[in-house]
Write a structure and sequence with these properties.
heterodimer; A: six-stranded mixed sheet; five-stranded antiparallel sheet; B: seven-stranded mixed sheet; four-stranded antiparallel sheet; globular
């Protein structure tokens, strides 16, 4: 089983749509959880940290289910500028981050 | 806004040559990292560095790799004898600290530099 698993997509959605990404992780000892965004051939950029209580930042909502080892990201009212690869990232007891392969989102006009 | 910087943006080298990739982490950060991403693949952890020593390294980080903080601002990754399979994007990252316990977990936010694209011919 992969350490962090994501559906690679692509997700092709029209502007204004709501889209959800899911991610599972294998190590139950994982302690920190993030969604990063990566544009083509650029560095990963932090989108949001994910907490057990769930958190929201504007159009973005992230949820964590520790019992199921499952992380989600919801994007409402998609914009063309949201087109990117969304990386599910998990941190353990050490500083190391473990990345998923990413989910490609293409928002169509 | 403070950011991590990396030089060069693109490095082309011959197989067997040594390369040094340079990074300037965010100034008040204490933890430094190198990751790499082979084209079309996921980002992979190479090494973490704190208090002038390696904290953790991955299986990829073999004897051909080394890291150094030669002064108060730079953090370097050296590959002694490059192989074709070392061709990748190398990202430097830094974090202010590592939180211990609590809902926020053990890893503080890591900020990534723009990367150095290494091409080994």
């Amino acid at each position: 089983r992969k350490e962090v698993e994501q559906d690679p997509g692509p997700f092709n959605v029209p502007e204004g749509a709501t889209v959800a990404f899911n991610c599972t992780y294998s190590n139950s000892a994982s302690q920190s959880f993030f969604w990063y965004r990566q544009d083509c051939r650029k560095e990963p950029k932090l989108l949001m940290s994910v907490y057990s209580s769930g958190n929201e930042d504007g159009r973005f909502t992230a949820q964590l289910n520790r019992a199921s080892q499952y992380i989600s990201l919801l994007i409402r009212d998609s914009k063309l500028s949201d087109s990117a690869t969304y990386l599910c990232v998990v941190g353990g007891a050490t500083n190391k981050l473990i990345f998923g392969t990413g989910t490609l989102l293409a928002v169509q006009p | 806004e403070p950011e991590v910087t990396q030089t060069p943006s693109h490095q082309v080298t011959q197989m067997g040559q040594e390369v040094i990739l340079r990074c300037v982490p965010i100034s008040n950060h204490l933890y430094f990292y190198w990751y790499r991403q082979i084209l079309g693949q996921k980002v992979e952890f190479l090494v973490s560095f704190y208090n002038n020593e390696i904290s953790e390294k991955s299986e990829i980080f073999d004897d051909q790799f080394s890291v150094e903080r030669p002064d108060g601002s730079n953090f370097t990754l050296k590959i002694r004898s490059t192989k074709l399979e070392d061709s990748a994007m190398y990202f430097c990252a830094s974090s202010e600290f590592v939180l211990a316990g609590g809902d926020r977990g053990a890893t503080d936010t890591q900020y990534f530099g723009p990367g150095t694209r290494l091409t080994v011919l």
